[in-house]
Amino acid sequence: MSTDTAPDADATPKIEVTPDAADEALGLLESEELDTGVAGLRLFVQQGGCAGLSYGMRFDEEPEEDDTVYEHHGLRVFVDPASMNYIEGSVVDYEDGLQGAGFHVENPNVVSECGCGESFRT
């Protein structure tokens, strides 16, 4: 398992999390009675949707052996190697607006998204 908690000043973190997203996820982890020092948010990519790929998120009690682990604003984020190929450089944010609240991934690798915004292609 590799850990990327303090990247070099010259290096850009491969996955970032905004303070709002970290606060929301930490609150949810705590409500599930998970240890935020070990547990974290798993961010992954799966086949599906009209554009071919979609994001998935869930809470895991601990990272898998081959995960890259990031820590931003106290939140641990787990990413498997296959998903990293699609989401490297992404930013996870939390939005609370008129059309509902939820996590959003801003992915610089996306070349097109479906009309509903639920799936993408790189």
UniProtKB/TrEMBL annotation:
Core domain mapped to chain residues: 14-118
A single GO BP: iron-sulfur cluster assembly
A GO MF label: 4 iron, 4 sulfur cluster binding
Top-level taxon of the source organism: Archaea
PROSITE patterns tied to this protein: HESB
Pfam families xref list: Fe-S_biosyn
TM spans (from-to): none
InterPro entries to which the protein is assigned, alphabetical: ATAP, ATAP_core_dom, FeS_cluster_insertion_CS, HesB-like_dom_sf
This protein's name: Iron-sulfur cluster assembly accessory protein
Lineage: Archaea, Methanobacteriati, Methanobacteriota, Stenosarchaea group, Halobacteria
